[in-house]
Amino acid sequence: MTLDFFFSNRCLGLMIATILNIVSLTVTQIAEAQVPASGAITLKSDVQESNAKTGVITAQGNVQINYPARRIQATANQAQYYSRERRLILTGNVYVLQEGNSLRAEQMTYLIDEGRFIAKPQSDRQVESTYIITDPEK
Q1: Distances, alpha carbon 4 to alpha carbons 10, 13, 48, 58, 135, in Å
Q2: Which of 5, 69, 97, 124 gives the lowest tally of CB atoms within 10 Å of its CB?
Q3: Residue 55 and residue 11: Cα distance in Å, rounded?
């Protein structure tokens, strides 16, 4: 077991946690007391890679994220986490679902330190969001 292997696995874990944190903050706002932060997170993709020199973690091909504790599912063609810049980019047919709320885009960028989220469509399309609106009196 090399140091690169250890670093890759550690960075991959950070990427998964970051992706799910970002998705949960950007799709819907749910009170912390109502949603536990613990639980199993599953990231699946055709290829996963980490570059210790650049701090970039990449998952490519059929990227699937499942986080049952926060009821989050996300898919994309690729996910990249820039650990030094604390920036996450999901690209290619991006879809995020949380408790009935959904978001579709070609590219999504989240700037972690700024709390800023940017979704971009394909050239002749639009970003699409669907939100479940509940009656606050019920």
Answers
A1: 10, 14, 14, 15, 51
A2: 124
A3: 8
Nearest to 29, CA basis, from 109, 131, 104:
131
Walk me through the domains of the chain, giving residue ranges and CATH numbers.
Answer: 3-130 (2.60.450)
User: Token pair for residue 47?
Assistant: 């290829």
pLDDT along the chain (138 residues), means of 10: 47 50 40 39 84 92 79 86 82 88 86 69 92 86
Query: pTM higher than 0.70, yes or no?
Result: no
Cα–Cα distances in Å, from 105 out to 14, 40, 50, 115, 130? 24, 26, 25, 19, 12
